[in-house]
Structure formats: C-alpha cells, structure tokens
Recover the amino acids of this structure.
C-alpha cells in the first residue's frame, strides 16, 4: 500500500464518481479504478459501492476514509515541516551557556534569533567550559562556548575565536594594591590567590600558572571555587586576591570590589564558539551568523 492508493481512494470518496476523481487527479479513469481495486484486494475488504451514476462508501469504507485522510494530512504536514526546517524556519536548537563567557554576547543574539525564527525551539543549557565540547560531541548541545578545544576532539568540531580576553585582578577596595592602575605579576607573589578550579576551565588555569612560572615564582593558592560568584564573594570577604577573565566584571555590582589589569596584559585566555563538523543544520548556521555579527559589533 502506497500513499498513491490512499490519495486515489479519498478522491473517489469525496467526488462520489471515478470520472470526476480522475479529472481532479489529472490521470485516466481506468488508472484510478485500478488503483482503488488494488487497494481493496490488498486489504481484503470492499470499500466502495459502485453504482451506475455514483459511488458510495461501505461502512468499512467510511472508517477507512477517515483514517486515510488523516494519513495523507500527516504526510503533507511532514513534507512541509521538512521543507521549513531546511530553510531554518522550524526545528530545535540547544545552546550551551558558559557563565560570563556568554553573558556579554548571548542575550542580544538570543533575542534576535527568537524574533527572526519564532518557530524554532531554543533550549539553553548551562555547562562549564570544560564540559561544553564533550556535550557538543555527545549531541546534548548544538553550539558550545568554551575556552579551548582538546586536541583529541578537534577533528570532530569546527571552532572560531569569539575574542581574546585579558585576565584581570580583583581585590577588596581596601587592599594595598588598589592604589596601582595596573598590577604587576611580581606584586602578587606574596598574595593568597583565589582561582577558578582547573576542572571547570583548564585553559584559563594553565595560562595563569604559566604566567607565574614566567615570573619565576609559584602562586600561593588559597582556594579553587567552582563558580565565579564564589570567587567574588571570597575576595570581598578578604580571603585573597582573585584572577579572573575580564568578562567576570559584568557579574559584580559590589562597591567593595576593584578590578585592575595586569601590567602589560601579561595573561590572556581565548573565548571560542564551536559546533559539530557534520552538522549541516540551517538552524545552526543562522545562529552562528548572528554570533559572528555580534562579534563584529563588539570588535568596533
């Protein structure tokens, strides 16, 4: 049984006449009659009463007619849905949130995307930088924001630079170093440091440690929280001095915290966005284009 059989049968049922059904379908009358007969033979039930002037449905035909109409409707709907999906008009998109990395770019991108593509179900999932690429490859998210792509995963994803971001110092406003416009790495040698845990952002942690190694001393790490807000809270409480990406400043509204650049911008970290290499989705392509547009705006 094919959709053609159902289409011919429904046309005859609606027109009540083989000749009229044939004209509507733009095929021969014998073709319509043959297809309906084949359908009845396959089912083993008579669906139509054939009279000299009109054709009517048998009780079984009435039941079959309602079901056949629904099947045809669903088939047409499926085709229309696929075509709209190919144009990026419908579908589902899952985007990874990555704390302050995405806070300066995603809100506007998401608003524009929802306005342009109201038929797309947009899902936001918060993941750490280290989790983003794994979730991307596993299919949990479609677009990732991360600090780096592990070498063993680079063949599976495309990625682009969102921006290079300086690492800055955050301290309580009463700290002695607040008087400085920029902070030298050497001046932090005796400070207790609060850093984001390596498991959550290994590239950031390793860059900070490498910066201290170049200055020929080992940092005194007071704590390694798993959240940026925890770092800010600990610094405000006097537990130490923090080293964070510049975007973390947007999370703070405390008058007790002061952010200072490192002298000569001695430490930077990448902010990347990534997607699966095999993903040819028009929906993903549209979202990526909005990210690129926002990146260009921020670069001006």
């Amino acid at each position: 049984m094919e959709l053609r059989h159902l289409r011919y049968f429904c046309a005859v049922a609606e027109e009540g006449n083989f000749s009229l059904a044939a004209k509507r379908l733009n095929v021969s009358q014998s073709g319509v009659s043959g297809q309906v007969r084949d359908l009845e033979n396959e089912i083993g039930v008579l669906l139509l009463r054939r009279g000299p002037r009109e054709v009517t449905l048998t009780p079984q035909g009435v039941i079959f007619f309602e079901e056949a109409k629904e099947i045809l409707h669903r088939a047409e709907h499926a085709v229309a849905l696929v075509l709209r999906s190919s144009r990026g008009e419908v579908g589902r998109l899952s985007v990874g949130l990555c704390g302050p990395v995405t806070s300066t770019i995603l809100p506007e991108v998401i608003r524009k995307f929802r306005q342009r593509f109201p038929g797309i179900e947009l899902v936001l999932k918060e993941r750490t930088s280290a989790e983003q690429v794994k979730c991307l490859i596993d299919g949990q998210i479609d677009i990732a924001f991360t600090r780096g792509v592990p070498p063993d995963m680079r063949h599976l994803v495309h990625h682009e630079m969102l921006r290079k971001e300086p690492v800055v110092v955050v301290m309580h406003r009463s700290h002695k170093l607040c008087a400085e416009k920029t902070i030298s790495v050497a001046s932090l040698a005796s400070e207790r440091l609060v850093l984001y845990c390596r498991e959550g952002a290994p590239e950031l942690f390793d860059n900070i440690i490498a910066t201290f190694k170049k200055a020929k001393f080992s940092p005194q790490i007071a704590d390694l929280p798993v959240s940026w807000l925890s770092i800010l809270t600990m610094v405000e409480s006097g537990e130490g001095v923090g080293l964070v990406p510049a975007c973390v400043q947007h999370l703070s509204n405390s008058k007790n915290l002061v952010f200072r650049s490192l002298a000569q911008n001695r430490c930077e970290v990448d902010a990347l966005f990534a997607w699966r290499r095999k993903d040819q989705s028009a929906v993903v392509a549209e979202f990526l284009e909005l990210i690129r547009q926002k990146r260009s705006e921020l670069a001006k």
The mean pLDDT is 92.
